[in-house]
Amino acid sequence: MGPNRNCALDIAKAICIILMVIGHSGCPDYLHRFIYMFHMPCFFFISGYLLNDKYLTNLKTGLWKKIKGSYYPFIKWSMIFLLLHNVFAYLHIYDASYSLKEIAIKFVRILTMTGSEQLLGGFWFLISLCWASIATIIFFHFMQKINNLSYINIFLGVILLLTMATLWNHLPIKLPAQFGEQTLLATAFYMSGYIYRKIDLKCNYPHIIELALFIIPIIAAQFTNLSMDCKNNVVLLYYVIAICGTIATIQLSRWLSYARIASLLAYIGDKTLYILTFHFLSFKLVSYVYIEYSHLPLDNLAQFPVLKATNSWMWIVYTFVGISLSLLIWELKNKVVKCLMNLTHTNHFRKV
Predict the structure, then answer these.
(1) Hey, which of 86, 193, 307, 328 has its CA 20 to 30 A from 167?
(2) Would you say residue 268 has pLDDT above 50?
(3) Alpha-carbon distance 178 to 171, whole Å?
């Protein structure tokens, strides 16, 4: 983690990625509804918060940076998991193997960011993040070019995106699914994060107010079930609830940045991509152990994301293993890379 890195934002990402794993783990219904009120919007919001102003001037560099940050990991890991699909099917992780034709179709879908493997179900985030960052940078660039990049115009852009998401099914022009309501919402949260940073750096107000915003998703989860795939008239309602939960999460992360657990959370927040990539696969290890212990048919291992029938506390085990095993994979990969670099460096000097 770099010396200029915002520790509080890493902690916020850690909170969100932990909530994401909990949400996939078969947790209790109310907890699931509460998490889905804001945890993914928070990621887009933080990405917008971190948008560097220099990319608004240097459009080519900005677009390349954002595309590389989301498209490259999407392609890399999707291709690896595609090549391993039939191996996973042999291990009963999947129900069926792919034919050569199916592999070719999946290959094209990966290249065009229109699909990925089931074990990478969370990679829809990278697709939406890619398009949200591109749309935001282009919009901000041209608004800045005409000296019109003001808070009010950015806010109007957010309102336009929310309106398009609300009326998506009634629009006269039908765009591909990857530009649908989910990506429109992602772009709205991305732009909102940028506005929030500008306001946050200038204002001095009681931060307890922001933390209290958790009350909104807490209450909303009692009565409704909303997430980033919401449609029609509930889009604006979801946006408001998600913004409240997101701002409260960022404020909570600032408080936690002074706690003893700060370094651990910042470490987790810095490895969110690996947790996003490997937590579903890590779940399979828990499912396998449970199947063996309970003498269940091995075919149950293909149940996704977790076993349908387990003890009520198993979501805690799934969560712990999903996070810790993903981090272990990162550590092992990092050690292998360092060993190879040291070996290459040593051989170079021997030749010299």
Answers:
(1) 193
(2) yes
(3) 15
